[in-house]
Amino acid sequence: MAVYTEVTDDALAEFLELYEIGRLVAFRGIAEGVENSNFSLRTTDGDFILTLYEKRVDPADLPWFLGLMEHLAAKSLPCPLPVRARDGANLNKLAGKIAAITTFLPGIWPRRPAVAHCAPLGEALARLHLAGADYAPTRANALGPEGWRPLFARCAGSADTVQAGLGAALDASLDAILAAWPDNLPRGHIHADLFPDNVFFLDGKISGLIDFYFAATDLYAYDIAVCLNAWCFENDFSFNITKSRALLRGYQSVRPLAEAERATLPVLCQGAAIRFLLTRLYDWINTPDGALVTRKDPLAYWRRLRFHAQARSEGDYGL
Amino acid sequence: MAVYTEVTDDALAEFLELYEIGRLVAFRGIAEGVENSNFSLRTTDGDFILTLYEKRVDPADLPWFLGLMEHLAAKSLPCPLPVRARDGANLNKLAGKIAAITTFLPGIWPRRPAVAHCAPLGEALARLHLAGADYAPTRANALGPEGWRPLFARCAGSADTVQAGLGAALDASLDAILAAWPDNLPRGHIHADLFPDNVFFLDGKISGLIDFYFAATDLYAYDIAVCLNAWCFENDFSFNITKSRALLRGYQSVRPLAEAERATLPVLCQGAAIRFLLTRLYDWINTPDGALVTRKDPLAYWRRLRFHAQARSEGDYGL
């Protein structure tokens, strides 16, 4: 469910007056997405996505996100291009929320990621990293390693209600991961949330990378670790090294990894696993029973974390 | 939330092979709708809606619904046209559900119905009634007057948990409505659920009538009564007679009402109010707390029912 805010006809008509994108033809809520309200918008000029930013996004971050998207789109990365209003603004108000119009991207996201998706994904991720390199503004990663301890502190007390012993196990894992965390790897702007539902494919090629609202400035290789977690585990939590190898090779065909990036893959992957584990755990504990949002099981990332904790080297990821 | 069933890429690709509608370009879940899973589907041939029928729709009824839509579309009513597969079938299986592809209709549904919407709505409803007259198959209205007592019996015991005294009040209302129910009015195929979210407008004109999955063979004037309930009350439950007059005049500009239809508007409107009250009451009591569907307040229809119960004649509706 990704329509949290009702947009009235009058408000929409008034909002569209701010833009030079023709007259309204169709307007439907989009079911996908969790954080914001998204609508598909058709005008006499073409197709667009209208996003209303809901409370989880800090308005102060929006210019950075939209600037990054504009920068990447200008470098031919297939990401949504924010449409500027007649006055040049790419953010405006609608129904009491900050809103943006972006271009529509064709394609569908893979419900069942296959090996064939992983090489194009790796290539696209590396292209994203290279294309973003000269986008000057930075954004600290609130959900990066500095954020994990404070986030854990907010849900540690309830961790054992999800699984007996989980609190102590997470505490120990966090200690180990943070102690081993590399701080001298190549850095830049990362997507930080490139899950399958944020990647559109068309005829076997990537046609869209969307949802840049967790993007931040952090380790490139950490972004790869997020993807390894998101794309390379099967439903039974077994790790598919063929997918992982394809993803890493695709990435390296565009941006070869430094020795230190390859060597630290196991701890980077543990960090990525614990990041999603912690936000899921937090949401699990804090989502009211009657809420419209489906809670995602934090233990799916506990299983991933355990895999990465026993990995010894890049070889365990197919390199 | 209107995506209950996940459709995998492979299953979708295989399904689309059954049709001659070009290659897949985009596929997104649609947030609107409650009963079924709906997706917007773009192919190289154009835009379509893909519907997966969920458990509330009886598969045995689907050929009747789709046949009616095909019949109405052939008479230029702006309703979705079911697309036939290469073998001529308009229903096929996808992701374990029965599924249909229909044409895409432009426009947006009015979030705040205004007087200006009501005359076109009335006209369109009358056109729907006339266009359907020579569609031979019939479908009994399971949610028509014969269905109200059995439905009430399934939730009467819990009615007082919604509002003290509601059970006895509904019992008495049902007796009065059923005793006064007219049985000699003009009959034919009715939409039976023409709420604002099922009516698209474009540039002030109706561009789409959708969601025929409550359609049935019943009194034409009862369909008008559903619309009067759905379109003519303000948020404070006051009845807007200007809207009602516009709706009825619009209807009569296409299909003049018989004297008996006009005279029985108050009881028909009570019937329509109690029909939605009962299904909402049933859902209210039977929807689990953690469900993804927003429960609609049954008391909104109790307020409407009280208005109609004090109406004396067609004059109370602006005629």
TrEMBL record, chains A, B:
It is an enzyme of class 2 (transferase). Residues 27-257 form the Aminoglycoside phosphotransferase domain. The keyword Cell wall biogenesis/degradation does not apply. Its EC number is 2.7.1.39. Keywords: Amino-acid biosynthesis, ATP-binding, Kinase, Nucleotide-binding, Threonine biosynthesis, Transferase. It catalyses: L-homoserine + ATP = O-phospho-L-homoserine + ADP + H(+). InterPro entries: Aminoglycoside_PTrfase, Homoserine_kinase_II, Kinase-like_dom_sf, Pseudomonas-type_ThrB. Pathway: Amino-acid biosynthesis; L-threonine biosynthesis; L-threonine from L-aspartate: step 4/5. Belongs to the pseudomonas-type ThrB family. This is Homoserine kinase.
